[in-house]
Amino acid sequence: VVLLVYDVNNPASYEKAITHYLPLVRGKQQQDGVPIIVIGNKQEKQDDNNNDNGAAGVGGVFMRPCNLPPECMFAAVSCRTGLGVYDLCEMITGLCAREVVGMEELNLQL
User: Fold this and answer.
1) What predicted TM-score, i.e. pTM, was given to this entire model?
2) Which residues, other chains included, contact 82 with Cβ-Cβ below 8 Å and sequence gap of 6+?
3) Model pLDDT for residues 31-84, shown as the tens digit of each residue
4) 41 half-sphere exposure, CB direction, 13 A CA radius
5) Radius of gyration for the alpha carbons in the chain, expressed in angstroms and rounded
6) Going by C-beta distance under 8 Å and a sequence separation of 6 or more, which residues neighbour residue 9?
7) What average pLDDT is seen over the chain?
8) Is 97 helix (H, G, I), strand (E, B) or coil?
9) Contact 22, 69 (CB under 8 A)
10) Where does residue 108 fall: left (phi above 0), alpha (psi -120 to 50 degrees), or beta otherwise?
11) 3-state SS, residue 63
C-alpha cells in the first residue's frame, strides 16, 4: 500500500502529491496492483468551506477531492485528534489482508 499524505489547508501540498509523487508510484501501482491511498491530513483545522484542493467539509465528513485520479482511494484524517485514523488503519489492514489471502489461495492451488 502506498500512502500519499497532504495538508488539507495547503493546496500546494495536494498539488505536489498529485503532480509529483503520484506519477512516481503509478508505474508500480499499475504493474503490481499496489493500492494508492491519498490522505488529507490536518482535518481538525478544516472549516466547512471548500478548499482549493476540492475537499469540502460537510458536518465533519470530508469528501474525496474532485480531481483525484479514480484509481486512488481517499481518506481524511487528523493525526492530532485521531479523526479518521482508525478508519484508515482498517482500510489498510483490509487491503493487506486481501493481498495475503489472495497469495494463500494461489499457493493452495499450486
Assistant:
1) 0.70
2) none
3) 667 888 999 998 877 644 444 444 444 334 466 787 888 888 899 899 899 989
4) 12
5) 16
6) 42, 45, 46, 51
7) 75
8) helix
9) yes
10) alpha
11) coil
